[in-house]
Write a structure and sequence with these properties.
Structural class: mainly alpha
Radius of gyration: 33 Å
Helix content: over 70%
Number of domains: 1
Shape: rod-shaped
Length: about 100
Amino acid sequence: MIQKSKKNKTFIFLSITSLILFFFFNKKNLFIFFENLNVIENLNFSLQNNTILREELLQRINDFENKKEFRELIIKEKLFFKDKSEKIIFYKLDD
């Protein structure tokens, strides 16, 4: 009787593990797994680029707030033309 019980438990254990292996490691799921790894890698790369960009922008904002020279340069850059080919549109304002 004990031997049948051990065989039965072993059979159940092997059946469950084989089903788990089949569901997790079949061909479709493996492809999805590797695709997800690629997506994660791309997102990590994008995240690193965004953090670098964020740091640069924060530095620029900090410079703009704290340095008068930098503020003047940025304002001149935004207000004045970069090329001579750029045109102006004048508006009449009613005071």
